[in-house]
Specification:
single chain; 262 residues; mainly alpha; 0% strand; globular
């Protein structure tokens, strides 16, 4: 096995073995202590069976939730970076507006979601807005921190050579903030899935195109905990997938940036 293959195996084997051990323990506990009340804690084998039987529903729901989470994430990435640039342009603006960004982050999304229904109606718009609200703050705060961390001497050097504000932003501040923006985007990717599912629980009812939040709520009302666990597993897989895609994109972006910097 090549060195690259060995490193890959070293990365993948420990979590795979840990997952197998966890599933085996889960199966054993469920069969020993919840055999007569399987609806309380269905074993992984029953969850896998329910997932296979409802594979079309779960695939469609995962796609629906993933679409809303992706749209909310893209909006949070674009608007979050733009808002951070606006805040970084003036200390006065930062002191005036940043506390409201913090307040938006600290208010539970379940308290805001009903307002989204009133403003945007029931359906995808409210779900995307929920994903955006949950995921935008890490982008704002990390981008702002990256811009603020620029060495003042470098700013003075740019001004000494007559650089305009736009040149300072695009050629100094944003490149310097690139690693921080990447961190914010990775955090936002996972939060976007959470926001989308919460939005679906409150505002995303749709008989023709239900998301994972709707599947979770329906399974709960029917006491189908095997399907509920399967939907939760799909939610976790969706979050991991979106996080991994963004992490890979950020890694390629940073690699290209560092290569260009050299």
């Amino acid at each position: 096995m090549s060195a690259k293959g060995s490193r890959l195996a070293g990365l993948l084997l420990p979590p795979a073995i840990g997952l197998l051990v966890l599933l085996a323990a889960f199966e054993l506990v469920a069969r020993l202590f919840f055999a007569r009340e399987a609806y309380l804690l269905p074993p992984p084998s029953a969850i896998a069976k329910a997932a296979w039987q409802e594979r079309a529903l779960l695939a469609s729901a995962t796609l629906s939730t993933g679409r809303a989470a992706a749209l909310g994430f893209v909006a949070s990435g674009a608007l979050g970076v733009l808002f951070a640039i606006v805040l970084a342009s003036s200390r006065l603006l930062e002191r005036a507006l940043y506390p409201y960004a913090i307040a938006l982050q600290t208010v539970p999304i379940v308290a805001i979601a009903p307002l989204l229904v009133v403003w945007l109606g029931v359906g995808p718009k409210s779900v995307v807005a929920s994903a955006f609200i949950v995921s935008v703050f890490p982008v704002v705060t990390n981008t702002l921190a990256g811009i603020r961390a620029v060495d003042p001497a470098l700013r003075d050097l740019f001004r000494l050579y007559g650089a305009r504000r736009f040149a300072v932003l695009t050629k100094l501040e944003l490149p310097h903030a690139t690693p921080s923006v990447a961190v914010g985007l990775r955090v936002a990717a996972g939060l976007a899935v959470i926001g989308a599912i919460v939005g679906e629980l409150v505002a995303g009812f749709a008989e023709h195109d239900p998301g994972l939040g709707i599947v979770v709520m329906t399974a709960y009302r029917q006491l189908r905990t095997d399907l509920l666990f399967a939907a939760v597993a799909c939610s976790a897989a969706l979050g991991i997938a979106l996080f991994s895609i963004v992490s890979l994109g950020a890694w390629l972006w940073l690699r290209r940036w560092y290569s260009g910097a050299r």
